[in-house]
Design goal:
The protein is built from one helix and 14 strands, in the order E-E-E-E-E-H-E-E-E-E-E-E-E-E-E. It is mostly beta strands and about 180 residues long.
């Protein structure tokens, strides 16, 4: 599922990542979205606008997959809006307009009303789909879970956003999807 981004590269310091030259001074790598996520050490995290919703096998060494902390910051730094219209089931994850909207979720279990209106036409966002009509969405992190044979993942459904959920690494059948990240200091 590919979401249109509409963001452009700036003209400051260039950095090479995976064979492509990205400008990470103040710009966003092509195909990635600045959702305002920043780690405690000052690292900015840009999330991919292209999401693989399911079917990916987990393995060690995926440095472009989010860490558990990056998923936690995605949850706490962004505004989450559940949508089940027009054949979509999942969350729009927006860069917030106001501090009060950070970490807020609007879904069937909440009555939160954001401070301003968010639009997929004008605001930076990614869409994280779930499977089926009200099913679950799982997205691998790059880290193992504390239970043997499990990896941490982001777990989504209409009622919950859980950034550190254990999922069997070798489960046959439905497998989590992937959202990738790029980082800069």
């Amino acid at each position: 599922y590919v979401v249109p981004v509409g963001q452009t590269m700036g003209e400051t310091q260039n950095t090479t990542v995976a064979g492509k030259i990205y400008n990470l001074g103040s710009a966003v790598p092509e195909g990635y979205v600045d959702l305002g996520v920043e780690l405690n050490d000052g690292t900015k995290v840009y999330f991919s606008s292209a999401v693989t919703p399911k079917g990916v096998t987990w393995s060690e060494g995926h440095k472009d997959w989010p860490t558990v902390d990056e998923f936690k910051n995605l949850k706490s730094d962004c505004y989450w809006l559940w949508d089940n219209t027009q054949g979509h089931n999942g969350y729009y994850v927006f860069k917030t307009h106001a501090e009060a909207d950070k970490g807020q979720i609007t879904n069937s279990s909440s009555s939160y009303s954001p401070s301003t209106q968010y639009s997929i036409e004008t605001d930076p966002y990614i869409f994280l789909p779930v499977s089926g009509g009200g099913g679950h969405g799982y997205y691998w992190s790059s880290e193992s879970f504390f239970v043997a044979g499990h990896a941490s993942c982001l777990n989504l459904d209409e009622h919950v956003v859980h950034p550190d959920f254990g999922y069997p690494k070798d489960r046959v059948g439905t497998r989590p999807g992937v959202v990738t990240v790029r980082r800069s200091n």
